[in-house]
Amino acid sequence: MADDQLLNQLKSKYQSVITAAPQLGISLQHVHIQDGKLFIQGRAPNQEIKNQIWDRIKQVDAGYSDLTADISIDPSLPVPQAQASGGASASGAGAGGRQYTVQPGDTLSKIAKEFYGNANQYMKIFEANRDQLSDPDKIRAGQSLVIP
Question: Fewest C-beta in 10 Å: which of 7, 29, 45, 67?
């Protein structure tokens, strides 16, 4: 009975995250108590959406010491229309494009793998960003790229 009470308490605390997940396109597999914490397991269609759910988790509790979240990326999942068009965060990204800020250690292949599930699609990103890239091997952290 203690697990049920803890489950209800933690589900209530993280309700905004649990509710937002399917709206963002995240498929939840498990929401239960494991090792005294709320365990949420799900699949996100891309890294951007995975980051959004983590942002929501941190809004509820920056330390999230009572939560274990296992969110993997499954590019075969559909991206909700609001996310596919980039939403408000992709202003200026062009029709159907999303903005992505290059992180240290990123390559176009790594970004293509995150968004398309295939590293060999990196030329799509390169072509969409020809205005600021002259070589697909030369990107830098902090750059804002359009992901078509």
Answer: 29
